[in-house]
Design a protein that fits this description.
Elements lengths: L1 E7 L3 E7 L3 E2 L4 E10 L5 E17 L9 H14 L8 E17 L7 E10 L15 E15 L5 E2 L5 E6 L7 E7 L2 E4 L3 E9 L10 E9 L4 E17 L2 E15 L7 E9 L1 H6 L2 H4 L6 E17 L2 E3 L2 E10 L28 E7 L1
Antiparallel strand pairs: 1-2, 2-4, 3-21, 4-7, 5-6, 5-8, 8-9, 8-10, 10-21, 11-20, 12-13, 13-14, 14-17, 15-16, 15-18, 18-19, 18-20
């Protein structure tokens, strides 16, 4: 039996001991509460409280390890704009209880004599431990702390003894199937008042719904101009809206430039181009953000197809661009997906782990 922690008060002392060091979700938590009564009293009841508290910190000063400093700067400027009275704000803390359950052990009806009493218990942990993760970025850190309280009430003076058992979740990356909904978006661009218009239309195969297989994008270029298109660029973008202190902040940026395709679409023609996308590679960088989607985060991702034209207008060489894209809207259940079977890794309690957009892997006794 692993002795965890002691808490002593005048009337009594409680000890919690657990069998084993690692708690795996979906399994039973077995232990014992030992009550040392130092004086005669009439307690009302003894119960356990298993509570999970999630804390997220967003450091708004440090820029170490930030891959996109420009978008990070925009985020900080937005925060300062929202809170002008706090120009020197260094970090944002969010804490909430995301899981709490009371387990009654015994109710007392008679006077208890001084002595030592044992109360064994068994708790079945849910296989889907919650995680909301208010916000994560290269500069944010989060911790999930589980506390196990043993509480006894005395009818006369309301003395309460409790024991805190700190449990922390190790955050690791786990692949899981992703379902996406795709909506075509066509954007017309009139880049020359007297030379006509051009447009990109996208068609995609069903493979785009499975991010672990390559997919084909069909790009139809309607070129009603006197320019030639000589390049197609495909990039993945994201748009995240997050709730910090009940204020919605927005951040947009390019995640990855996927591919560039040299093509040749002559003036005043309509041509179809096929683009083969290596989705597993493209979306690998984007899964970290995707896995964070919760009720508190609004998030959209989109593939942007950009066509670059070259030509001359009024004796000046110009490079007009047209854009089309596919908006990817996450399905409701995907953002809350959790790994199937979890393995335990010991970590110290109350330390913050760089989340980097990953899911709960295990909880371990510190």
């Amino acid at each position: 039996m692993e002795k965890i922690q002691k808490y002593t008060q005048t009337a009594c002392r409680l000890e919690i001991s657990l069998l084993g060091k690692t708690i795996v979700t979906g399994n039973y938590l077995n232990g014992n509460v030992k009550m040392h009564l130092n004086q005669t009293c009439i307690p009302s009841d003894l119960h356990l409280l298993l509570k999970c508290t999630e804390t997220v910190k967003l450091n708004t000063k440090s820029e170490v390890g930030i891959k996109n400093p420009e978008s990070y700067k925009r985020l900080i400027d937005t925060i300062k704009h929202q809170y002008p009275a706090e120009p020197q704000i260094k970090e944002i803390n969010e804490k909430k209880t995301i899981y709490s359950i009371v387990i009654p052990i015994i109710s007392f009806f008679n006077e208890m004599s001084p002595g030592i009493y044992d109360f064994p218990f068994q708790i079945l942990l849910t296989s889907s431990l919650p995680a909301s993760f208010i916000y994560t970025s290269p500069s944010s850190y989060g911790a999930i702390k589980y506390t196990l309280h043993s509480i006894i009430f005395n009818n006369s003076d309301k003395i309460t003894s409790k024991i805190n058992l700190n449990v922390l979740s190790k955050i690791t990356k786990t692949p899981y199937p992703i379902d996406i909904k795709s909506y075509p978006v066509n954007i017309n661009s009139l880049f020359c008042k007297y030379k006509g218009m051009c447009n990109l239309k996208l068609e995609h195969t069903e493979e785009i719904y499975n991010l672990f297989k390559p997919a084909i994008l069909k790009v139809i270029v309607e070129n009603n101009t006197f320019f030639c298109m000589n390049l197609l660029t495909v990039a993945l973008y994201y748009d995240i809206r997050l709730n910090i202190r009940k204020t919605m902040l927005s951040m947009q940026d390019q995640l990855v430039k996927c591919v560039e395709f040299p093509v040749k679409v002559q003036k005043l023609t309509t041509e179809e181009c096929e683009i083969s996308l290596d989705l597993p590679r493209i979306f690998a960088k984007f899964l970290n953000i995707y896995s964070l989607i919760t009720d508190m985060i609004e998030c959209k991702f989109y593939l942007k197809i950009e066509g670059v034209f070259t030509g001359r207008f009024l004796d000046k060489k110009i490079r007009p661009k047209i854009v089309s894209g596919i908006v990817i809207v996450p399905s409701e259940d995907v953002g809350r997906a959790l790994p199937e079977q979890l393995s335990g890794i010991l970590v110290e309690s109350d330390n913050f782990i760089n989340l980097q957009g990953n899911r709960i892997d295990s909880i371990s006794i510190s």
